[in-house]
């Protein structure tokens, strides 16, 4: 186990959606790199459990903030923490998110709005909250979990995930010369709780070779962020798929339209 004297204290990282899947891996790997942590999630009991484990294993300081980022009052607590000048956040990971199991027209508009707020509005507000201090200090990293789905016209989830891809490209080009980098992580299929929470079997989503481990995805993302890259795409297979998707968007739209017309034909 590392000690305070043997590890170099890199600063404080704030991770949203920090208690499971990709978020938990970010928490663990950033702790191993020497960051103290602020963990944000909705479940206070789970937050405390993860925090205790990290304090014991990595000998880091861990704060917890139980907050629903779609609730303005609770989100403001996180924004205030990001603006702290006495214990500044040097690395922000916007990871919190979820998907909806049904088609856009079958979900309530309120459910769709909450998902959009969590996937796009919350990362925008948290990034804005932390940016001023990072620019004043001349250093900082903002990493937002996007998705390869953001490059495909495949519903509101994909549209929401397109936001961090576009924003991070612009923000990284705009602020990098002032010491602050922005990175969008665009993984494909990752073995986490995400799909099981939707009630979807992994085997029905994609063949086994397309699934990545969260540990590898996060390690690749942190490496890309340390190099100041605007987009992190883990694994060669997904880099190739990303290139194909960008070229094939018109064909994807045509396929979606045809499939929709077929599924909506009257059967009686």
From TrEMBL:
The keyword Signal does not apply. It holds the Pfam family adh_short. It comes from Rhodoglobus aureus. Keywords: Oxidoreductase. Belongs to the short-chain dehydrogenases/reductases (SDR) family. SUPFAM superfamilies: NAD(P)-binding Rossmann-fold domains. This is SDR family oxidoreductase. PANTHER family: RH59310P.
